Fold this protein.
Amino acid sequence: MRLFPLPYKIWIHTLGLVSQPVCPVCRRPNHRHVLSILCPHCKPSLTPQPYCRQCGRYLPPLDMFQGRTLDVCRFCRTWKTRLSRAVSIAPYSGNWREAILHFKTYPYGDLARQMAHALVRLTKQRLPWSSITGIVPVPARQNTENHPAHRLAELFSNLNTYPIRPVLRFIKKTQPQRGLKRKERLSNLKYSMRASIPLKGETLLLIDDVMTTGATLHECARALNAAGAEKIYAATLAQGVWE
Ligand SMILES: [Zn+2]
Ligand SMILES: [Zn+2]
């Protein structure tokens, strides 16, 4: 006699109902818990929507631009970043923002693993996956035990064969970025980082939890370029919403 005559997924579903799991973000009951830790309300909608081919920012409704489809956003048309290209799973708003705040508080749970999975999927879809030679977390400004970008890069690296290279260091003191405008952020961070090893000819993927204006990723890319890296891409869980 078979011990488990029912298909695996039905067993998982039944167990989920018995333990009455809740979504960690909105606390709604989530019967699909074992298969997907976030409830359908909190999972970012991955329906196709226009995004900037350069920085990955999701574009505002087309009518703002008289119905024209744009390839690059208004920031990328006026400012040249050091990044070859960047991608983000979704805008930093609503329940997805709450989910990221939850991940920052509990970076070792199942939610963190699920987020890393989603980031790998997106990177495979939108970036030249096979050319990447290493994963670089955006460095922390001060010594801290809980560093979400490093944790995310670690999980990302565990899901594939790319080595994690935590090579970036801050070499000068910077002001907190919060409240600063884009230009102020750029000058605050300018020449603030250095790579600890030579990276000649490498194609690297920077990982961070949230991209706000892109100033930090730009400065990371400058430091990696200075160490010899050829191309630098970036992947983040979310991006600052359109200002
Ligand atoms: Zn939820
Ligand atoms: Zn852009």
